[in-house]
Amino acid sequence: MSIPVTVIGGFLGSGKTTLVNRILAASPARTAVLVNDFGEINVDFDLVKAGDDLTFELSGGCICCSMAEGVGPAIKSALKTNPETILIEASGVGEPRRIAEFALLDPALRLDMIVTLANATALDRQIRDPLIGDTVARQFDGADLIVLNHADAARPDALTKAHDILRRLAPGRRVIETVEADLPLDLLTATSHAIFAAGPLEDDTDHGSIYGRDRFESDTPIPVETLEAMLQALPQSVLRLKGWVLLSEEPEVMLLQYVAGRWSLVPAPDAPRLTRLVSIASDPDFTIAESLKTQAFSAS
Amino acid sequence: MTTPVTVFRAKTIRTMNHNTPKATHVAVKEGKVLAVGTATDLTDWMGFWPDLTVDDRYADSVLMPGFVEAHGHAMEGGVWRDLFLGFFQRHAPTGELEGGLKTIDQVLERLAQADAEMDDPDTPLIAWGYDPIYYDNQRMTRHQLDSVSTTRPIVITHASFHIMNVNSKVLEMANMFGETGVEGVLKDASGDVTGELQEMAAMFMAMNATGAGMHLRETNADTLRAFAQSSVNAGVTTCTDLHQRMDDDALAAYETVTEEPDFQVRIVPAFGSLMWDVPTGLERIKMLKDRGNDKLHLGLVKVMTDGSIQGFTARLKWPGYHNGAPNGIWNNPPQQLKDLIKAYNAEGIQMHLHVNGDQASEFVLDCLEEALNEHPHADHRHTLQHCQMADAAQFRKAAALGVCANLFANHIYYWGDQHYALTMGPDRANRMDACATALREGVKLAIHSDVPVTPLSPLFTAWCAVNRLTATGRVLGEAEKISVEDALYAITLGAAWQLKLDHLVGSIEVGKFADFAVLDRDPLEVGGEALKDIKVLGTVLSGQPQISAIRGTPSQVEPA
Ligand SMILES: [Zn+2]
Ligand SMILES: [Zn+2]
Q1: Is B135 in the A-facing interface, judged by CB distances under 8 Å?
Q2: How large is the average pLDDT for residues B228-245?
Q3: Would you say residue B517 has pLDDT above 60?
Q4: Ligand 1 centroid distance, CA of B470 (Å)
Q5: Per residue in B77-93, is it b (16+ CB within 10 Å) or e — as a string?
Q6: How far apart are CA A86 and CA A109, in angstroms?
Q7: How confident is the model at residue B84 (pLDDT cuts 50, 70, 90)?
Q8: Hey, what's the signal peptide range on this chain (chain A) (predicted)?
Q9: CA B63, CA B531: separation in Å to the nearest integer?
């Protein structure tokens, strides 16, 4: 099965390293991490559970060198270590969308999520700076999730302004405010096995008020049309939806991976014969059942 | 025991030393200049040095100090393993004339010829130097390349290094047909994959799928030897390799070749500072500074900041690109670049800073001002490389800070028309690579080729700075022309100064290395327009004659 890749982007001071460390702390042991070692503070390597052999440096240098020493060769080396997931931290001027193209082209990889961080206290100033404004703006291209970090340190008007800027630069993208890049970890980790287990959802009390989790289970097959219509119509608030789907048209159970508007469906031969989906949304009231019902209703 | 003395007798010797500007005889001992003079002086010398021999091989030639290329890349020694598809003709290190392909059909014909010359139908055909900017930006398609071969992967890297064209075979091998969702795999209006690949992911995956190596960046003993032959062909005796990771393998290759007695050039690699984190880089450059030999000079540091103007990746000040293209890209966040510049300056290390656009040169000047105020660094000789769009104010500031400029004069010929029409517009194009302004404002000047970006040939580079003619014959900035004398100084002592080697090379002067360029005519007699037509016969390095591999026409340039 292909290896999920998460790309983290954002300008200096946006909290990229903090987020990378958070993800590493919650990731499976065999997570390969590609970091730009040139940065302000290095990743806290203690958190890389499997140690040095899973850490790959992305060296800087001129653009011509990116062919020989950049992301491509680093991914190639990372794959040799049989990682379960790959986490790539873009450089301060890196465009996450362009890095993500590796995951889209390499059949061994699957793009899980592109997260771009913005600094709520500095975004307005950065965007107006002729030296870096366009560079900062380009980093939001293609982001699945924009994390407006340091929200606690920003004055209310600055926060409003930051949202306005993001709406203009990245219309239709999901934006979440955070403090210290604190995001629910089941949102960030592509392979949290807990999500597939039966039983009650673990309650993440810290985030309970902002995020809603839902689970849906059924052994009635779903028409593929209904599923696709539902996925297309999912509200902005749905950040991740994943699990097994029993489709009317397919003999095999399928594995659905939905991240912020992008999704993939692949056969899951070992899965039980049922539909079991789990969602995480920035709207506590979202339910999968409701969404499916709406589509089933409008289709009939 | 005495060491033998050789006297080279030449038609004319232009020493670039103003005390003895012109001579006919130069005596060499132990690889160094022992005396410079005339036939009359020779009579005295014979008295002092009984084992003196007179070498007449240059009796009909002109000697100058060996040229100094202060911005080139040893990659030149490696790229010729792949097929060159340039619009302009140029010589491979071995002397063959390649390129000069004036239409896409000629490009395809050249590919077909190369394909026919290869035995195995599956071996990848890798090419470089293709530049659609000269073909009205017409796009090449995979179907055109399929007419060359459907079995052999064909990969063509553009001159910009940011775009590739590949045939269907490569797309198939790299799984690039169908819905990839990748913007870098281009499609035409009907949704057909065109075979044009942009940016690193698509380009890397294509290269990787064909199994072709990344030839372009390799530095090994063989590429360095080929690079040395290119230098001889151009009259160059001191050449930079101005961006080098300088890991242990590269260092070993450098040490191996430069210790060979017949290695043909002095070489000056610059340590690529952005390829290492700052503390590791500082430690490494200090180690490197203590190494080297007569032919290997370590200790230079390169800092990249922006991209290239013709690739629309240089950082420009307002109003940006003339055709409205978005501003270019930084290699690192400016704040990080500033921290790095300060850290290297504080350790007393000289930096060569790649700045193409005027926003990059302005930013770097500001960084250097701060760095030098915090840590004064006497005789730093920090140098702005390319610095193509700097205006008079930036040159004045550079002069005030003691910062040198190495301007990319060859650009005027190769991309001047495109700068005029597309990138900068008339006014800024006229002041690009403003050699006259730099000199007038008191900036220490050199001019360069950035080989393999343009061909290595300091006399051609001097011709560009003197005549400022574009490929179509337009004079770009009459007011920025410089004299032949100033241009010759820039390719000898001016360049040597920026490498901190002016006490060793750059003029024919007693005590300096006996490094000469051997020419068929005198640059100060032929006139500025003919500088590029002077034939380089070879060089002399430490008194050892080296022969150019180029036969026939010396000119790199076809008539406009
Ligand atoms: Zn450069
Ligand atoms: Zn260069």
Answers
A1: no
A2: 96
A3: yes
A4: 21
A5: bbbbbbbbbbbbbbbbb
A6: 9
A7: very high
A8: none
A9: 15
A38 interfacial to chain B (CB closer than 8 Å): yes
Q: All domains of chain B, ordered by start, with CATH?
A: 5-60 (2.30.40.10), 76-216 (3.10.310.70), 219-547 (3.20.20.140)
SS3 B348: coil
Residues composing chain A: 300
pLDDT at position A61, please? 43
Nearest CA in chain B to A103: B201
Residue A188: which of A149, A139, A219, A144 has the closest Cα? A144
Range B179-184, long-range pairs (CB < 8 A, 24+ positions): B180/A104, B180/A105, B181/A104, B182/A101, B182/A104, B182/A105, B183/A97, B183/A101, B184/A98, B184/A101
Interface of A with B in 69-88 (CB under 8 A): 69-73, 76
Question: What's the gap in Å between A163 CA and the centre of ligand 1?
Answer: 38
Q: Which of B264, B299, B243, B289 is nearest to B72 (CA)?
A: B243
Residue with more model confidence, B232 or B551:
B232
Judged by CB atoms within 8 Å, which residues 399-418 of B form the interface with A? none
CA distance B457 to B498: 18
- Chain B residues in contact with A71 by the CB 8 A cut-off are 200-201, 204
Whether residues B274 and A66 touch (CB distance < 8 A) is answered with no
Report chain B's mean pLDDT, rounded to a whole number. 94
Taking the model in full, what pTM does it have?
0.92
The nearest alpha carbon in chain A to B320 belongs to: A130
Q: How far apart are CA B217 and CA B386, in angstroms?
A: 21
Whole-angstrom Cα distance, residue B222 to residue A141?
43
CA of B78 to the centre of ligand 2 (A): 15
Residues of chain A with Cβ-Cβ distance to B215 below 8 Å are none
Average pLDDT score over residue span B32-56? 95
Cα of B72 to ligand 2 centre, how many Å? 6
Q: What are phi and psi of B193, to 5 degrees?
A: -70, 125
Which pLDDT belongs to residue A14?
Answer: 94
Query: Could you say which DSSP state residue B31 is in?
Result: T
A63 touches chain B (CB under 8 A): yes
Cβ contact A98–B184 (<8 Å): yes
CB distance from B178 to chain A under 8 Å?
no
Which chain B residues in 270-309 lie under 8 Å from chain A, judged by CB atoms? 272, 274-278, 304, 307
**Token couple for B349:** 């290390």
B321 touches chain A (CB under 8 A): no
Whether residues B317 and A130 touch (CB distance < 8 A) is answered with: yes
Residue B453 distance to chain A (closest CA, Å): 12
Residue A68 touches chain B, beta carbons under 8 Å: yes
Facing residues of A3 across strands?
A: A109
Per-residue pLDDT of chain A (300 residues), as tens digits, is 789 999 999 998 999 988 988 888 888 778 899 887 664 444 444 444 445 566 676 654 444 444 556 788 889 989 999 999 999 998 888 899 999 999 999 999 999 999 999 999 999 999 999 999 999 999 999 999 999 999 999 999 999 999 999 999 999 899 999 999 998 887 887 665 444 554 445 545 455 567 888 889 999 999 999 999 999 999 988 999 999 999 999 889 999 999 988 888 989 888 889 999 999 988 888 999 998 888 776 654
The CATH class, in words, for A211-299 is alpha beta
Return the ligand number nearest the Cα of B356. 1
CATH 3.40.1190.20 given to domain A3-207: no
Domain boundaries, chain A: 3-207, 211-299
Tokens at A6, concatenated = 């998460």
Q: Which residues contact A195 (CB under 8 A, 6 or more apart)?
A: A186, A242, A243, A278
pLDDT band at B431 (very low <50, low <70, confident <90, very high): very high
pLDDT higher for B178 or B188?
Answer: B188
